[in-house]
TrEMBL record:
SUPFAM superfamilies: FAD/NAD(P)-binding domain (SSF51905). It holds the Pfam family FAD_binding_2. Keywords: Flavoprotein, Oxidoreductase. NCBIfam families: PRK12834.1. It comes from the Bacteria. Transmembrane segments: none annotated. This is FAD-binding dehydrogenase.
């Protein structure tokens, strides 16, 4: 084992996800020398944001106005705070971060990104629709803006800025450097020490070795922790599982690579930082096993349109308003009461063609590669999009059959399928279809489907024309087994509005900052208990920018 020569910089950034790249580029733009370290090989520059769909939350944007959407800061504030449900003493700074982020999303956020060359898909999506009252959780209007180029398109300008500054000698990037402790002098954080891991040729997202070949030491006047969350560490997810979501699942799949392990949380705490709201987390209930996995236990989230029938493991339909795309954590809380770790979508070929989108940059080659011809063919043409068809052909969780009896038999043949009651499934599906006979209905999901198509974006690419699922003309029938998919930490290192890490006494820890998921996307939990979607990479942008500018100003 070798000990590397000490490194020195004005600003040290730990973690090269989106928040870290933004913090580093902001500090370098202010004339500071910056070092970025990460435990992974350089192929992973950009972190989890690279794999993302690149959804961004804007308020009263040009894209919204062109789609006929009337939005306002007051309406967005109403939605955010109703969804967050802040109710703890620890929510002092998260509340202030929420207000600051809303001002950013309604103000300079879009123009700032446009100046960097980031563009947006013109159709605005409607995620987390709520389905409760005006003061309940959810987005009152569509606000989900897809980055043209998805996650890679969002990472690209900041990666380019890092590489440009690196060529000029203002940023140094050190892959395979795992921080094990922060160093302090007279109570001031002065950098970090850690282990140098063996070089790795692992591709992006692929599990890399943890062989230690050396040690390192870095001194810095300011240190920014931007090391991400805990979603790849299922043991830690279960240990911090919130009581309000019931018991943690026995089996889960991973929506993030294994390196999202939470290893910097105890390091930050030993240096005096306070980690709050650790029991607040954001996991999806529409997870499917990736037929072509990159990382261990790799899962993909279905971004569902609103038409699929959602059944629990026994075949009972989920209660109002737990329809696809309406209330992620409300659905998770309900499903945890069923005693099973999975649920089901039942749908038709017409629904899968119109409504199924898969989360992630690699699952959306048309948007990621900015391929207009492929986009028109995949989103508006006949047949399922290529990545969706691949899951229909190869996915372990997909059942495709001609008749309902055959479909139920296929569902029961999958692991855990024995819990399914065939009579219950048949009753739910047939009863739903009877409601399609005329324009009147007592089925809230059908009424919502008809209403949703009044929005041009839903009618164009997101919501299938309401129809009887069992009509052979709409077939074949499809069932999808759904798993809990780990994803985001909503809590993290408590920070003030400058991104300074705070200690147990509420005072800043001198020399220490935090950003991104490591800080709960700002303040230690800017989302509260629930999120509105399009707010995760946006929170990385905002908190990374804030911490990078503040760290640079302080040195």
């Amino acid at each position: 084992m070798t000990t590397a020569s000490p490194h020195a910089a004005d600003v040290l950034v730990i973690g090269w996800g989106l928040a870290g790249l933004v913090a580093a580029t902001e500090a370098a733009a202010a004339g500071k020398n910056v070092i970025i370290v990460d435990q992974e090989p350089r192929t992973n520059l950009g972190g989890q944001a690279f794999w993302s769909f690149g959804g961004l939350f804007f308020v009263d944007s040009p894209e919204q106005r062109r789609m006929g959407i009337s939005d306002s800061l007051d309406l967005a504030r109403q939605d955010w705070f109703a969804t967050a449900g802040f109710d703890r003493e620890e929510d002092h700074w998260p509340r202030q971060w929420a207000e600051a982020y809303l001002q950013f999303a309604a103000g300079e956020k879009r123009a700032w990104l446009r100046e960097k060359g980031v563009g947006f898909f013109p159709v605005v999506g409607w995620a987390e629709r709520g389905g409760y009252t005006a003061t309940g959780p959810g987005n009152s209007v569509p606000r989900f803006h897809i980055t043209w180029g998805t996650g890679p398109g969002l990472v690209a300008p900041f990666q380019a800025a890092v590489e440009s500054a690196e060529a000029q000698g203002r940023i140094t990037v050190l892959p395979r450097h795992r921080v094990t402790a922060l160093t302090s002098t007279a109570g001031i954080v002065t950098g970090a020490v850690g282990e140098v891991l063996a070089p790795s040729g692992a591709a992006r997202g692929v599990l890399s070795s943890r062989e230690v070949v050396g040690e390192f030491e870095i001194t810095a006047a300011a240190t920014v922790i931007s090391s991400g969350g805990i979603g790849g560490n299922h043991d830690l997810v279960r240990a911090q599982w919130p009581a309000n979501l019931g018991t943690p699942p026995t089996t889960m799949i991973s929506g993030v690579p294994a390196y999202v392990d939470g290893s910097m949380q105890p390091v930050a705490q030993r240096a005096g930082a306070r980690v709050i709201n650790g029991d607040r987390m954001w996991h999806y209930v529409e997870g499917i096993q990736n037929w072509n996995p990159v990382w261990p236990n790799h899962g993909i989230r279905i971004l569902p349109g609103p038409s699929s029938i959602w059944l629990d493991a026994t075949g009972a339909r989920l209660p109002v308003p737990l329809f696809p795309g309406f209330d992620t954590l409300g659905t998770l809380a309900h499903l945890r009461t069923t005693g099973h770790d999975h649920s089901w979508f039942v749908l038709s070929q017409k629904i899968v063609e119109k409504e199924f989108t898969l989360s992630g940059s690699e699952q959306n080659p048309d948007l990621t590669d900015k391929d207009v011809r492929l986009l028109l063919r995949s989103r508006l043409g006949k047949g399922a999009a290529g990545p969706v068809q691949a899951f229909l052909d190869h996915g372990a969780d997909f059942v495709v059959r001609r008749t309902l009896d055959e479909l139920i038999a296929g569902m029961r043949a999958l692991p855990g399928g024995e819990a399914l009651d065939a009579d219950t499934v048949r009753r739910e599906v047939e009863a739903r279809d009877r409601e399609m006979a005329n324009d009147f209905t007592k089925d809230a999901q059908i009424a919502m489907l008809r209403s949703a198509r009044a929005y041009r974006g839903d009618k164009l690419i997101r919501t299938a024309t309401p129809h009887r699922i069992l009509d052979p003309e709409n077939g074949p029938l499809i069932a999808v087994k759904l798993h809990v998919l780990t994803r985001k930490s909503l809590g993290g290192i408590e920070t003030d509005l400058s991104g300074r890490a705070l200690g147990a006494d509420g005072a800043p820890v001198p020399g220490l900052y935090a950003a991104g998921e490591a800080s709960g996307f700002g303040g230690g939990g800017v989302h509260g208990y629930r999120a509105l979607e399009g707010t995760f990479v946006g929170g990385c942008l905002f908190s990374g920018r804030t911490a990078g500018r503040a760290a640079a100003a302080a040195v």
